[in-house]
């Protein structure tokens, strides 16, 4: 028997574990994986049995990684990304009409995916392979045709085209009753949803208030999330007022499901850019995708 088959857990259990760890929920992971919650729970139990250690603590209000689970999650995420990157490179090398794009989960879900539906209708012969990861930087783009990177637009190895600027404002569910606010200082008195961005490059309420000359101390009982997408889901569910990125909030506001809280916004000066390696010529399919996507972006 192969040493991998003998010592490694089944791949599907690792994929389920990564999804549960990232989402912090069996239910959200099941939705993402198109599985039932019981199927995901069964895969996690099988993985824990294989490793002989508990990976999650089951609590009344949800789950969290154990110390062993957190350590394993860090390794599994890297391993799966490398495996996916290798598969993407091999696939792209042998499919002239395929394009691979790397971006964050938030950009993939709220901005790029709706565009891909339109692109597919316009160019059905071109396949776009989307790889979502929050562990994204300049070096990782080399494994793909394109990346969507956040920053000031200057990367030594990448060509960059502006997609959308970073605009952040207080956001709430349209169902949530909030007192009128006329100044940024009045936002601090509202029930705020906190974003813990300590592990990655993202603004939080401290940064937002500091832009307006104010200091912010989070309430001890404030709901706190370590991912933009999770905090956004909490906003949608009416848990409080959170930071809303324009590219994520625009459609919900237009549908009347979300509302801005106050008329002030933090325009950070950073933006998201479509990037690709300077040394790597674009295929005809990749050039078509770039030109089409930039054509959908307001000047």
UniProtKB/TrEMBL annotation:
Q: Which PANTHER family does this UniProt record tie to the protein?
A: HTH-TYPE TRANSCRIPTIONAL REGULATOR, TRANSCRIPTIONAL REGULATOR-RELATED
Please indicate if the UniProt record lists Iron as a keyword: no
What is the species of this protein? Pseudomonas linyingensis
* Gene3D superfamilies, per the entry: Periplasmic binding protein-like II (3.40.190.10), Winged helix-like DNA-binding domain superfamily/Winged helix DNA-binding domain (1.10.10.10)
One GO molecular function term of this record is:
DNA-binding transcription factor activity
The protein's name in its UniProt record? DNA-binding transcriptional regulator, LysR family
Q: Which InterPro entries match?
A: LysR-type_TF_proteobact-type (IPR058163), LysR_HTH_N (IPR000847), LysR_subst-bd (IPR005119), WH-like_DNA-bd_sf (IPR036388), WH_DNA-bd_sf (IPR036390)
Domain (HTH lysR-type) ranges? 9-66
* Swiss-Prot/TrEMBL GO biological process terms: DNA-templated transcription
Keywords assigned:
DNA-binding, Transcription, Transcription regulation
Q: Which family does it belong to?
A: Belongs to the LysR transcriptional regulatory family.
Q: Which SUPFAM superfamilies match?
A: Periplasmic binding protein-like II (SSF53850), Winged helix' DNA-binding domain (SSF46785)
């Amino acid at each position: 028997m192969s040493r991998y088959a003998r010592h490694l857990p089944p791949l599907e259990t690792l994929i389920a574990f990564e999804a549960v760890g990232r989402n912090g929920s069996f239910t959200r992971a099941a939705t993402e994986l198109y599985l039932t919650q019981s199927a995901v729970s069964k895969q996690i139990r099988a993985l824990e049995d294989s490793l002989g250690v508990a990976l999650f603590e089951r609590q009344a209000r949800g789950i969290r990684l154990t110390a062993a689970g957190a350590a394993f999650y860090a390794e599994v995420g890297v391993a799966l990304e490398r495996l996916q990157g290798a598969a993407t490179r091999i696939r792209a090398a042998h499919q002239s009409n395929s394009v691979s794009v790397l971006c964050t989960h938030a950009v993939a879900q709220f901005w790029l995916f709706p565009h891909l539906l339109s692109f597919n209708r316009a160019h059905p012969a071109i396949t776009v392979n989307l790889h979502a990861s929050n562990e994204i930087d300049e070096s990782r783009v080399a494994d793909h045709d394109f990346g969507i990177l956040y920053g000031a637009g200057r990367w030594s190895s990448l060509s960059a085209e502006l997609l959308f600027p970073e605009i952040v404002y207080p956001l709430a569910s349209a169902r949530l009753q909030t007192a009128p606010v006329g100044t940024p200082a009045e936002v601090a008195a509202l029930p705020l949803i906190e974003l813990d961005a300590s592990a990655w490059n993202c603004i939080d309420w401290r940064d937002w208030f500091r832009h307006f000359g104010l200091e912010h101390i989070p309430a001890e009982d404030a709901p706190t999330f370590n991912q933009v997408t999770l905090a956004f889901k909490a906003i949608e569910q009416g848990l409080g007022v959170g930071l809303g990125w324009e590219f994520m909030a625009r459609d919900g506001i237009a549908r009347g499901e979300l509302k801005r809280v106050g008329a002030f916004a933090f325009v950070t000066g950073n933006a998201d850019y479509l990037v690709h390696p300077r040394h790597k010529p674009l295929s005809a399919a990749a050039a078509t995708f770039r030109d089409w996507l930039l054509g959908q972006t307001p000047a």
